[in-house]
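Reviewer comment 2.1 asked that we show a complete input and output for one of the modelled complexes. We chose the magnesium ion case, as it is the one discussed in the main text.
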Amino acid sequence: ISESEDGAAVVGTMELAGEGSLLAASDEGSSETGRSDAGVRKVLATPVARAMAKEMGININEVPGSGPSGRVKKEDILNFKSPSAETSGRTDA
Amino acid sequence: MIQNDLPAIFRDFNPIEDKMLQVIDNEGNVVNEKLMPVLDDETVIEAYKQMLYERIADEMAVSYQRQGRMYTYTPNIGQEAIHIAAGMNIREEDWLVPAFREMGTLLAKGVTMKEMFLFYLGNEHGGSFKNVRHVLPIAISIGTQFHHATGIGYSVKYQKKDEVVYTFIGDGGTSEGDFSEGLNFAGVWQVPVVFTIQNNQYAISVPVKLQTNSINLAVKSVAFGIPGIKVDGNDFFAMYLAYKTASEYARAGKGAVLIEAFTYRRGAHTTSDDPSKYRGKDEETRWGLTDPLIRLQRYMQSKGIWNIDEEKLIEEYKSEIDAQFVEAENNKSYPWEDIFGHMYTDMPDELKRQKMEYEQFLSWKENRR
Amino acid sequence: MIQNDLPAIFRDFNPIEDKMLQVIDNEGNVVNEKLMPVLDDETVIEAYKQMLYERIADEMAVSYQRQGRMYTYTPNIGQEAIHIAAGMNIREEDWLVPAFREMGTLLAKGVTMKEMFLFYLGNEHGGSFKNVRHVLPIAISIGTQFHHATGIGYSVKYQKKDEVVYTFIGDGGTSEGDFSEGLNFAGVWQVPVVFTIQNNQYAISVPVKLQTNSINLAVKSVAFGIPGIKVDGNDFFAMYLAYKTASEYARAGKGAVLIEAFTYRRGAHTTSDDPSKYRGKDEETRWGLTDPLIRLQRYMQSKGIWNIDEEKLIEEYKSEIDAQFVEAENNKSYPWEDIFGHMYTDMPDELKRQKMEYEQFLSWKENRR
Amino acid sequence: MSVMTMVKAINNALDIKLNEDKSIVIYGEDVGVEGGVFRVTEGLQQKYGVDRVFDSPLAESGIVGTALGMAVSGLRPVVELQFEGFTFPAFNQILSNVSRMQNRSRGKYAVPLVIRFPYGGGVNALEHHSDSPEALFAHIPGLKVVIPSTPHDAKGLMISAIESNDPVIFMEPKRVYRAIKQEVSEEKFVLPLGKARVVQEGTDITVVAFGAMIRECQKAITMAREAGISVELIDLRSIYPIDRETVGNSVRKTGRMIVVAEAHESFSVGSELIAIANEEAFLYLEAPPRRVMGFDTIVPLAQGEKYYIISPDRIFYEIEKSVKF
Amino acid sequence: MSVMTMVKAINNALDIKLNEDKSIVIYGEDVGVEGGVFRVTEGLQQKYGVDRVFDSPLAESGIVGTALGMAVSGLRPVVELQFEGFTFPAFNQILSNVSRMQNRSRGKYAVPLVIRFPYGGGVNALEHHSDSPEALFAHIPGLKVVIPSTPHDAKGLMISAIESNDPVIFMEPKRVYRAIKQEVSEEKFVLPLGKARVVQEGTDITVVAFGAMIRECQKAITMAREAGISVELIDLRSIYPIDRETVGNSVRKTGRMIVVAEAHESFSVGSELIAIANEEAFLYLEAPPRRVMGFDTIVPLAQGEKYYIISPDRIFYEIEKSVKF
Ligand SMILES: Cc1ncc(C[n+]2csc(CCOP(=O)(O)OP(=O)(O)O)c2C)c(N)n1
Ligand SMILES: Cc1ncc(C[n+]2csc(CCOP(=O)(O)OP(=O)(O)O)c2C)c(N)n1
Ligand SMILES: [Mg+2]
Ligand SMILES: [Mg+2]
Ligand SMILES: [Mg+2]
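Response of the prediction step:
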């Protein structure tokens, strides 16, 4: 059923390090590596706004947000008239 | 307070004086004739056979595990006299609330080796003991079973049933709070429970002297106002007498009893344990001389009732046990739904949802192939 | 196992025989001359004064509570001999690990009534006992303190310090698993801990006989291999002798001791309890005759050392205690930041965030006005 | 009908069940002669005798562990633990055995056991007497966790809990015990376990709460109404199984949710409800669902508790923040 | 540097600290002569003597309760509980005292105590030997809860835990104990408590995990890469305090999150992380954050465990579902 091992695990079977189970060493700890989190530049929108935009075929990136920090809210989608959305003319609407 | 009409053995073998009840010695000689329980020869032979069966089953289980055919197993070797003496006293309607090292008593209650094997093969159906009456599953969280036994004792008493509850614990287990609490409740409630400490000298690697500073383990009964007695656990007759006396006491409505069965775990703690790390060969050899099977065999031989073709019997047992193992091993059915099916008596919506989502995953997996 | 060179009182008052150590009787007569501790008159008078102080403080606390000036309070009335006898033996470097009903011993360690009042006024700073050495906060979760005391005992022993640990529990508390576990660890580790059971006959409404079936509570020591003794808890001299003997035993490195102080909770369990629900007036009257203050007073009178103007003393105590209460009552400062400030030695970001968000709410609230 | 406090309503439920089913026994610390420190079992020992209603030794692990033994052997125990803070000596019995016996025995041993205890803050108590540990129990599979908020609910839920063949953790908001009264039928009635109650319908935001917080929420809702905000209030009633359907429906309607509870917010019922709102109503969310809960601190003693405990204005503040988001 | 399993790495951390600080003592069941049932304390009693490394009686409440006593009186105990399933007899001591002594004593008694134990499934064990109770500890204010996933992390985090003046619950994924090896410095080094590690950067979805699940996630990530999905993997390392900054940054970037953990999903670390994702990254969410976790069932014995345990393909399935949402 399994390999045994050199411990005295009271119960169960323990997986033993085999081929390919050698992890790369880490140099963390000796010098702490600070992380930068640049590159977060996405449109801010509530999930419901995202959902409605998708539903209505609106590119949410084109919608001006009226909420704090320019977030796109449900109302913004409802009030948005996008040329692309009009021409695409959804048939299932 | 304990009532005054205690059976004589509790007075004669008062644990406060660190006495131990013994009937036969290591050579099988009767050392306490007047305590010899009245048993006909067939019964004695039957007892030996049951002890032998447990021993063989144990050895085979260990070897299945070594062959990689079974997961970790907990052998009983050396403690059979306790299990079978209890087993011969416990009646169908009596309750067994096991710890995890009293296979012989489980077998006496009707549990099969197939079920035991199934359990150690990782299938809950083996450990449910569903097919026998009044047996609880084994208790892995040490000590907790003492309360269950006491509670069942209360039920029995409340419902005025003629039932006795048997429960077990190890020497290590006596350190757990639930051990003391359980005995204390049993003392106050005067319930029909026979508590056994199997003092096999070790809790995994830890010897009794690191477990407690008390003169013995039976004496702990004093703290809870119930009678206690220390018994040679490798002496079948002493154990039989202790169980007979204790169960009569309990059935008479006098309350609970604590038995310390002084024994030795001859095998490893489990199949993944190596005792040579923490104890010497000479110690093992010394205790080997007290082996309960050898002692009973010698007794029967000296009494001239030893009529067993042991070799043949062992072969019989072996093939019967192996057949059970193979059956268990071949039981490959473990439907995935089973893991959801026993959590509640009626499955709550949350579980139904989780089950359904898992089913969706399974069919996605199926479709990917 | 317990060592053989036990002090005589442990042999002479063996709890197995249900004996109880007593030095003076209810009339203050010495009934056991050779056990009378050698104390000069001033010390005896001082002991009485401390007991009186505790009594007065208690009564005042109850009345503040009745006046609605303080929350639920736990009176000590009737148990002062125990607390002051312990207090007179405990040294600055000794540890006190309290339960919740040993105010006199806390006072002896240097805790002030102002702190006690602050605590019962709902301020943690009163209950931290920050200003005295080697006193733990009171233990509300019953029984848990036994382990803390044993652990401190291990520390003391490991660090080879000349310190003794004192800890307390009630009769009800003896049913908790931690009571037994704690004594068991203390037995194995042989730590310098003096365990006291204040057997005041009740756990709230539950009488001792529903708590355990043992012949007394001191006898529970047998289960853990430590010496035990049952002592008249309303007899200051008996308690003093017990503590002196026990602490010397512990300091000599011989291990722990269990003392059952047999007493009576003369007051209610707490100010919200009404004992008339569960016990009779005659019982209360009967026990009233054993009151530790009256007994010590009688002893002093018969010995001719009673030189106290009690009325005056009581007035003195009252105004001193009242001043402390008023101080505590006027302490209105409880900065909201305080509830975050003591959870960790360095506050984690999660708590900083919660604190900041709460601050935002507070300023919103402020602005709304 | 008769006017009852929650204490009386639970007492009445216990009385009805004791009377109707001889297999029911009640025990715990001080529940006998004393009738419980909150008087929930008052009069029951006198009426049903010491074999059926009795004081146990002071040991919670023992109380629960023995009750499990009784439950697997024909009785239906209802045990009292004196305060939520003293449930933890019994935690091992609850987690390792009570919740698991049914599964371990593959259905051979059901565990018809009710563990009831007062919980929660707001009563100027000592440490361990003001906590709300529901999340700890709710995380343990095999248990049902129930919390009533009114006398009526307490009665109906208690009767259901006793009749359930599964173990039920029944948490009673001590702050509500005598604080409100209600006309409650003296007849037997049951309320289903696992079903929340919509206390009040609304359209702008969903507030989910339970126990003593329901009343605080109602006060906050009055403030919200004055500010023109329509609130839907859900009383969870069951913590496990949790009624994700009712919560999901409501949040899909309102697009907003706050959870109001006394417990420490981290790893709490609040966390769970936010997960559920995401799973059930993600595409309807107009503001982040939020927890209005206790801090990750020990509940302070009386003088500090006012900062810890959730006040109606703090609930209103969060409602407004969510709606204005 | 030397190649170490996690067992060896923790042993090495304990050795370094025992050697450097006489106030450290180690005890528990079988940790002395035996060196622990998993051999984590192997050789330490021989090296440091029975006063510093020793076997205790078999009583978890006692182990933890006495350790608290030691911790407030000058020692720094590191105690072992044998398996996660046997931490519960000690739950009352942990919740009622260990986590609270610092606050109760207003800082007079800090509790420099490490409680370490193996946890988690995947080793074909008996009941109580496969559980993941981290949420239960994380909900208790006053504790720190740490879980390493690699030998290197185990060593650095263990040294930090021992040096912390606050009590630390140190959970060791037993499945990983000997399953992987890593070059680990033999010198002393520390890793900060409360900080997660970004194991791998990615842009499409954030996967948060810890302990033994990190390896399973890495396997799933390989599958995802083949499907053209870029995954960011976060190893939480600390369950409490939880690193909401790292999680928030990541989810703001990816807009998606799943949590992978072995524990029962209800009222879990998964629930908490979803709450955090909502609080920190609500306006960036493109799919509902989801839990890929254990069911609300007892972890099955070996034959059934394969259904319970989270497999890489189940993780991949959920990654794909989220990305396609
Ligand atoms: C509460 C609890 N703690 C720890 C364990 C792990 N464990 C399993 S068996 C064992 C030793 C038991 O010793 P003893 O009680 O003497 O019984 P024996 O194994 O000798 O029969 C330990 C520590 C457990 N099962 N339960
Ligand atoms: C673990 C725990 N359970 C229950 C309680 C509630 N409680 C407070 S005092 C008390 C009775 C204690 O009785 P006893 O030990 O005899 O001490 P006494 O009050 O008589 O001094 C109870 C049950 C508690 N504080 N802790
Ligand atoms: Mg043993
Ligand atoms: Mg008492
Ligand atoms: Mg939780």
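The mean pLDDT of chain D is 98. We note this here for comparison with the apo prediction described in Section 3.2.
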